[in-house]
Design goal:
- The chain is elongated and about 50 Å long.
- It has a single domain (4-152), classed as Ferritin, core subunit, four-helix bundle (Ferritin), CATH 1.20.1260.
- The chain has helices at 4-30, 37-60, 73-87, 91-114, 121-152.
- 79% of the residues lie in helices and 0% in strands.
């Protein structure tokens, strides 16, 4: 059995990661036909897999895993900003800047959890594995942003 602390931290990450997946799915719809639709769908699918693995860990610890997002706070606002960038003619650069901001927020949540010395080895291991996917998404968004700045001569 895991501690309540393990389960609470994992469930918090599950909620934030679901928010991320939902945001990418909505953004893929908004970007339909745009150059980012496929990338957003891939990010969403990857996040769903992360959520599933974290939920399995919570069940393994004897807890009840979260199964929906928060639709509140900072990450949700990031997705609203992204939708505005997609539909408001801000261009690809604005879209990628919003994606990177959302990814920064998500990565920070995982960074905080990884520094939590009260988590069990099981919880830490699950978070580390999930973090690899989150970091890869963050790095992709960051690389895209930098390549666009280079293309624009910024």
């Amino acid at each position: 059995m895991g501690s309540d602390h393990d389960i609470n931290v994992l469930n918090s990450l599950i909620t934030t990661t679901i928010d991320s997946a939902n945001g990418f799915e909505r953004s893929a719809e908004d970007a339909e036909g745009g150059r980012f639709a496929d990338m957003f769908r891939e990010f969403a699918e990857e996040r769903r897999q992360v959520v599933s693995r974290l939920q399995q860990t919570v069940r393994g610890l004897g807890g009840e895993p979260n199964d929906d997002g928060s639709l509140k706070a900072d990450l949700h606002r990031r997705w609203i900003d992204l939708r505005t960038a997609l539909t408001g003619g801000g261009g690809d650069k604005a879209v990628i800047e919003e994606v990177e901001r959302g990814e920064d927020y998500l990565k920070a949540k995982y960074d905080t959890a990884l520094k939590d010395g009260e988590l069990s080895a099981t919880a830490q291991s699950a978070i580390r594995d999930a973090y690899e996917s989150v970091r890869a998404g963050h790095d992709t968004a960051s690389a895209l942003k930098h390549s666009m700045q280079a293309d624009a001569g910024a």
